[in-house]
Amino acid sequence: MVPTCAARPGPRDDGRSGIVRVIVIGGGIAGTAAALGLHKAGFDVSVYEAHPDGAEDIGAFLTLASNGMRALAALGASAAVTAIGYPLTTLRVLDSSGIEAAHAPLGESGDPLLRYRCLRRGELNAALQAEVARRGISIRHGARLASVEEGHAAVTAHFTGGGTATGDLLVGADGLRSTVRRLIAPGVEPRHAGERVFYGYATRPVPAGAPETITMVRGSAAAFGCTASPTGETYWFARVAGEPASADEIAKSTPARWRELLVELLRKDAGPAAGIVAATGERIMVTGATEMPLGTPWRSGRALIVGDAAHAASPATGQGASMALEDAVVLAKAVRDTPDTGSALALYETLRRPRVEYNITASGRISRGAAAPPGSGRGKPARRPGDDELIRLLAWNADIRTTSAHGGGGG
Predict the structure, then answer these.
(1) Helix or strand or coil: residue 239?
(2) Which of 35, 106, 128, 273 has a CA-to-CA distance to 19 between 20 and 30 Å?
(3) For residues 79, 81, 86 and 90, what is the CA-based torsion angle, rounded to 10 degrees?
């Protein structure tokens, strides 16, 4: 077994755990976080990323919610992320007439480590990859997975350019178009969730709201959100109902054309949205909202998928990255605290599936225009499965089996 620090639990040294070496396929948010968690638990981890450098979806931005920030703290990676982006402490909601409908604290805003954080996806990726490297975890770029060979005692990854990697567990964190998922669950692919999603940055000051505030607009033709960065940029997104843009449409459209189409929709309402988009230059991107079907198989023998590969949801709830970070902590603790590979992966799935599949369902309902997630009352969002047990489940030094015995169905 890999030696561990006495100050924290490590993999079992009683000979019962079958996992020492872990292969992580994918160097994005889910993959780097999983590597950090498994390394912290004392395992020998290597990351293999298909992209030749650290770039991934640089144009879009995201928010990490308080639950995601709590998972980062459990991984010991808070400092790496709070060094970039900026905090969000207040939520402001406007209706289509521009009238303020709500104004409230956002998440666990009283704790600096748990405040929502707004940052660019590429910056988060780079920060987590740098933290992986700082801890001495191997990360190899340009390694595209071709196939997986499972044996009784090991699993081997074969890469397209030649070469292999062998370990006791393979974690597929290779995103929406996951190769590992196609090997575990052939034919299962993400589906359109009913919306096109626009992201952009207005570089000159526009009325986006007070510092550390995210403003959400319930528009008649689009859901819109914006926030002002400390440098004076306005980060914004818009979710518009419709079919996904075709590859041909994306190839032929320009940022100016996307801007024109979106401003035309947003001008139907009062409020800041149309002006913010009109003030945006070339930095506009569009993508389709996607989600994984419920019940997608996650594991086969010594292979497991996590993050978007397993449970991608539309961006309506803003929980994608945070759920991937939760995955990392729960997986590391499950492997650390259970007696064998099968038990570890079964416990991980038991804990995670109710929570992430609720998120897929709730986010999909919002994207398709439903008034509220299932189980809510009078428009108030229902609590996600596992919310009541989240603090205990993510506490690094708590045995995950004891925590799960309290009924924490998924984080």
Answers:
(1) strand
(2) 128
(3) -90
CA dihedral 103, 367, 31, 347 (to 10 degrees): 90
Which has the closest alpha carbon to 25: 147, 202, 187?
A: 147
Q: In Å, what is the CA distance from 364 to each residue of 92, 200, 348, 351, 359?
A: 22, 22, 24, 21, 8
Give per-residue pLDDT as tens, 193-236. Answer: 999 999 999 987 666 678 899 999 999 999 999 999 998 899 99
Max CA distance (Å), the chain = 66
- On whether the CB atoms of residues 291 and 363 are closer than 8 A, the answer is yes
Alpha carbons 109 and 119: distance in angstroms, whole number: 17
Strands in 191-202's sheet, in edge-to-edge order, are 100-105, 90-94, 213-218, 223-228, 234-241, 191-202, 284-291
Q: Give the distance, in angstroms, between the CA of residue 244 and the centroid of all CA atoms in the same chain.
A: 21
Query: Cβ distance 337 to 9 under 8 Å?
Result: yes
Residue 226 parent element (H or E):
strand 223-228
Q: Rounded to the nearest 5 degrees, what angle is found at the Cα of 263, between the Cα atoms of 261 and 269?
A: 125
| Residue position matching structure tokens 């979710």 | 239
Position 373, amino acid:
P
The 10s digit of each residue's pLDDT in 123-168 is 999 999 999 999 999 999 999 999 999 988 999 999 998 999 999 9
Task: Report the alpha-carbon angle 93-96-101, nearest 5.
Answer: 30
Give the distance from CA 105 to its chain's centroid. Answer: 22
Alpha-carbon span 197 to 203, nearest angstrom = 20
**The model's pTM:** 0.91
User: Distance between terminal CA atoms of the chain?
Assistant: 28
